[in-house]
Design goal:
about 550 residues, alpha/beta, nicotinate phosphoribosyltransferase, 6-stranded parallel sheet, 5-stranded antiparallel sheet, 24 helices, about 15% strand, globular, disordered C terminus
């Protein structure tokens, strides 16, 4: 095991690179990067650094020249052959070749784009501009660098013996936490602490301690490099970044209201199993669940990342039950600023009602509270978020008002859109003219149908059907296949055109009928014909 104190002491003598690998990052970053690479490759974004703990004046603590050296070093890093082999050949979440050949070919030749650094009022202003899938990979390394450089600024004032004592006390403190967790039956917990870690060395040690102390209860780490190094699972799904950018790209309030579901529809096509985890709080969990399409209820679980975790868990359980799902077959991941006491309490309260897992972050990899004078090593809140997408501001509301980000005018607009009583798709509902199950918005996707609205219920892809729906009457029918929208579109283009439908020659192919799931041939014909503008008697299943 590395002598951390001695290693830290040697940081004084020269610039010691903090980030030495492109995969010293969170696993979900690579998953999201591949999704963006596939679905939004031309989107231009700006990422910006924000220090929420303004009393920590980073620009007065961290030397600008040293910071530039660290950032320039990161820009020089390329994916190594061993790292490429790991990503290409390893099994993640039970799936081999999680990353496509096209994505890996791009990543193997990738280097991080330029940065822009300034000082303002005792803080650093760091911005990154360019294609979304390139710029997004700056987030984790820049946070890791700044957090560790702040730690180093404190540690360099200590001599070797003081460092030995400090790390001995920190190790004892962490091990006592692990001892408390040992008694929890069926505990599942992972390391989520890369972005705000004390240092890479400390995160690596913490992972080893979790492996040793918790055994199979420790499910893995979000850090890809440590996962490769320690031969453990890389853990992660998706983050707020995706709905924030999708929301910024929306061209109307109706598109904005659908943005949180649109990115999940894209994710649904790419991943299954335990990678289908809903993160509902970007624009408020309550509104998200009220308007969520049916197909989301089939996803594996939900991550609770803001607000009161108990309220969030209870709301998730209530929603699953309202959707006809068994919460005991679902997974809740708690991940917001947890410490050992909360983990113990939440596990005891919810483990009998739902499968519970924990993503343990800052208080695992950066808990040095009360170990040095004046709280100089206490963790603080530093974030790097997408600020604009194609020139339009991004917004995050969160279930915690203190986490809201974005221009005030846009925050007000987003609050209006996501707190409104309509589902965000049907303009007639806003005017009180919607006849499709008035007052029932739960788990439906609504689209305009001339003088009425349809509720398209689907376990798979209701939201993806919305661009194709324009019949003259309402339909209430389950669409079970993720390819249903494509089949509808294909049927219309290959024989189901408006003109042919009106002349009675619109027929649905067998694949199209099968894709609609549960419809008879006649019903499928009527359903598809309605898209072409025929006025037919409505049917309802």
């Amino acid at each position: 095991m590395v002598d951390i104190a001695t290693r830290v002491y040697n940081h004084k003598w020269k610039i010691d690179p903090i980030v030495r690998s492109l995969i010293d990052t969170d696993f979900y970053k690579l998953l999201m990067c591949q999704s963006v690479f596939r679905n939004k490759p031309e989107t231009q974004v700006t990422f910006s650094l924000m220090n929420r703990s303004t009393h920590i004046r980073l620009a007065e603590i961290v030397d600008e020249g040293e910071l530039r050296e660290q950032l320039d070093h990161i820009r020089s890093i390329k994916l190594s052959r061993g790292e490429s082999t790991f990503l290409r050949g390893n099994t993640f979440y039970g799936k081999r070749q999680m990353f496509s050949s096209e994505f890996m070919e791009w990543f193997e030749n990738f280097s991080l784009p330029p940065y822009h650094l300034e000082k303002t009022n005792g803080q650093y202003e760091l911005t990154f501009e360019g294609k979304w899938h390139e710029v997004m990979l700056w987030e984790v390394p820049v946070l890791s660098v700044l957090m560790e450089m702040r730690s180093r600024s404190v540690l360099k004032t200590l001599d070797r013996f003081q460092l030995q004592v400090l790390y001995a006390r920190a190790m004892t403190k962490l091990w006592e936490k692990i001892e408390r967790l040992k008694g929890l039956e069926n505990l599942k917990i992972a390391d989520f602490g890369t972005r705000r870690r004390h240092s890479f060395l400390w995160q690596d040690w913490a992972v080893q301690a979790m492996q040793e102390g918790l055994g199979v209860s420790f499910t893995g780490t979000s850090n890809c490099l440590i996962a490769m190094k320690r031969d453990i699972e890389a853990i992660g799904t998706n983050a707020h970044e995706l709905p924030m950018v999708y929301g910024a790209l929306a061209k109307s309030d109706e598109e904005l209201a659908m943005a949180p579901y649109q990115f999940l529809a894209d994710w649904h096509e790419e991943h299954d199993g335990n990678l289908r985890i809903i993160l509902p709080d970007t624009y408020g969990t309550d509104g998200f669940l009220k308007n969520a399409p049916d197909w989301l209820s089939s996803w594996t679980g939900m991550r609770i990342d803001s607000g009161d975790p108990r309220v969030g868990a209870r709301n998730a359980i209530k929603w699953w039950r309202s959707m006809g799902e068994n919460p005991k077959e679902k997974l809740i991941i708690f991940s917001d600023g947890l410490d050992v006491g909360q983990i113990v309490d939440l596990h005891k309260e919810f483990s009998l009602d739902v499968n519970v897992s924990f993503g343990w972050g800052t208080n695992l990899t950066n808990d040095f509270r009360n170990l040095v004078d004046d709280s100089r090593l206490d963790a603080f809140s530093l974030v790097c978020k997408a600020a604009t997408a194609n020139g339009r501001a991004t917004v995050k509301l969160s279930d915690n008002p203190n986490k809201a980000t974005g221009p005030l005018s846009e925050i007000d607009r987003y609050r209006r859109v996501f707190s409104s009583t309509f589902c965000g798709v049907c303009p007639r509902e806003r005017r009180g003219h919607c006849t499709a199950s008035p007052g029932r918005r739960l788990s439906c996707t609504r689209v305009r149908f001339g003088r009425t609205c349809a509720r398209i219920r689907g376990k798979e892809s209701a939201s993806r059907c919305s661009p194709y729906l324009s019949p003259k009457y309402g339909v209430h029918r389950r669409i079970r296949s993720p390819k249903a929208a494509n089949c509808i579109d294909a049927a219309l283009r290959s024989g189901g055109s408006r003109s042919r439908a009106r002349s009675g020659r619109c027929t649905a192919s067998a694949p199209s009928v099968a894709a609609l799931g549960g419809l008879s041939s006649r019903q499928a014909y009527l359903f598809l014909a309605s898209f072409a503008g025929l006025r037919l008697s409505p049917f309802c299943g």
